[in-house]
Amino acid sequence: MELLHLRYFVAVAETLNFSAAARKLHMAASPLSRRIKDLEHELGRPLFDRSTHHVALTDAGAALLPIARDVLDRVGSIRWRLDQATRPDRATVFVGVPAGLHPALRERLTRLADLVADRFEVKRWPGTTSDLVAAVKDGKLALTLARLPVQEASLDTLHVMSERLGAVVPADRFAGRESVKLADLTDLAYAKSPEEIMPAYFEQLDRQLRELGITKRIQLSNTGYQGTSEIVSSGLGFSVSMLDEDSSMRGYQLENMAVLPFEDFRAQLDTGLLWRHDRGEGGDLDELVTSAREVFAEPIIK
User: Is the dihedral of CA 183, 187, 188, 190 positive or negative?
Assistant: First the structure.
């Protein structure tokens, strides 16, 4: 049995969906299913009940889940425990920062760095939410800001910001408008950024829009947020982004683009601060986490 088998098992057990777990693990569903079958063969018992439309844990699978999580947490703690044992008086720590982070949160990160400067040198590390969360779990990052929801049992989450979202539309088609209804968008395609850079929330948003009558889609790949802006600016579709004019996402705005509030639909993106539970209270990051809780105590609403 290898640690990868346990990682694969936990991913499937937490999602109860092989396709979703495979996306989370950045692999195809077929080899993931084979690895789970290999683990079941080695343990001599089934871990999942599978059907065409349903996946559930067996009694053995339910019993294995806390054991597997504990093993992975212990292995993941090796890096920080070693750092703790050999650390200098002032340690360098990295805090994950997702794309489009609001300037108000950057200001709070600066306050945190100043507050703990005698004990920690705080550095920022960019990435997508999924990669940043994985890096915190692996002990490579001390903390991360991440787009919610994030479902990781080994991590603690502090909600730090909510940002209202609006429709990003071709300005010439909505000239003079101060808001927009979903019915106004049905003849436009919803432009989806590449899945690898989009927070999990936007998967929920995509389903909501489809259920509410927005059925056309443009799925982009091998491009960033700028690619979505090109689609909107050229009049081929619309997207969804932050309404606040101070948002860093406004930096992707091109000509012939407008961001309008929805009249009949409410969407918001939440951001959280995450850290490993075992590194917080009583762990090597106790002082840093305590200071972070103080700095980020009041969530920002935009």
Answer: positive
Contact of 174 with 258, CB cutoff 8 Å: yes
Selection from 25, 143, 138, 131 nearest residue 76 by Cα: 138
Separation CA 272–CA 157 (nearest Å):
6
The alpha helices in 44-179, defined as continuous H runs, are 59-76, 78-86, 103-115, 129-137
pTM over 0.70: yes
**Residue 139 near residue 80 (C-beta atoms within 8 A):** yes
CB 79, CB 139: distance < 8 Å: yes
Going through 171-253 in order, the beta strands assigned E by DSSP cover: 189-192, 217-219, 237-242
Residue-level pLDDT at 90:
78
Q: Output the six-digit token pair for 277.
A: 């539970």
Under a CB-based contact definition with an 8 Å cutoff, are residues 189 and 293 in contact?
Answer: no
- The CA–CA distances, whole Å, from 295 to 72, 80, 161, 237, 291 equal 30, 23, 13, 40, 6
Both tokens of 196, joined, read 């690898």
- SS3 at position 45: coil
* Residue 88 clears pLDDT 70, i.e. is over it: no
